[in-house]
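INFO  loader      accepted 1 record
INFO  loader      residues=351
INFO  predictor   begin
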Amino acid sequence: MLTVTAAPALPVEIETQRPAPGKSWWRRSLTVLLLLLGIGSAIGGWYWWHQPRNIVPAGIVWGNGRIDAREIDIDTKFAGRVYELLVDEGDMVTEGQVVARMDTRDLQAQLGREEALVRQNEHAIAEAEANVAQLKTQQALAQMELDRTSALFKRGYATRELYDQRFQALNGANETLKAAQARVVEAHHAYDAAKHNVELDQVNINDNTLVAPRAGRIQYRISSLGEILPAGGKIFSMIDISDVYMDIYLPTLEAGRVKIGNDARIVLDAYPEHPIRSKVTFLATQAQFTPKAVETKSERDKLMFRVKVRIDPDILKKYADSVRTGLPGNAYVRIDPNVEWPSWLQSRSAN
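INFO  predictor   done
INFO  writer      dumping tokens
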């Protein structure tokens, strides 16, 4: 009987299954792609969030710019030394507030001399008027003597010679009186001249006390204490908070519809929820290149018209301490009076 014996199983090497090289590359690429899409979405969302998210209706045009204000230089009228500085950079000042004083010791000495001349001329006037009063009595006496001599001469009791002497004496008294009266007038003129010199010295002393011409904020201190300045030397530069504006640049088709006095709103990037009531106060008559402050190159390459949008002075008075220059933002101009401002441009600060 035959016995069949099974052959021993050969050892088989079992390999661990690995993904194909092509599948691994696609998986990594997909991960990188998703990551890039996430970053792009985040950047796009941030950009969208910082752009005007509201649609501007037809009849309203807008442009971007920066808040600016009229600058005023506070400078000296005369050459001199800076004696006192009463404010510093960043301080708010009111109209007429004293901000600096110059050294006026030389003017004070000159003023004392002119005041002494005034008093001297006052005495000269009194003396001249007393002399006139005395000469009037002499004239009256000469007139009476002539009248008596004339009566006697007519009756033959006085000679012709005596009458002529009395007549010449009266003429001499009259001329002397006229000369004395002229000296009184001259003394008055000298007094007036001395008085005007005193007033001029006082004006010059007052002009060396520098005051703020308008309410505003001190922006720069240009000179230091004790510094000697020429006439017209600048001490402070300030901004006038009653004249705050934004310059925007509009293309021809839009600028051509803008008029002086058009209602406007300024929306600052720092305060997007608080539109500021404004008006158009200037429109350029010639096109020009826009400045570098305009952000996009395509806009800088165009010829645009400058439009000045000025903030309502009543709002500036209310928020004077908050006025800052250089803040970027957008200005919206309503060129169609029949168009209503959208709700996002009608906040409390705009009404």
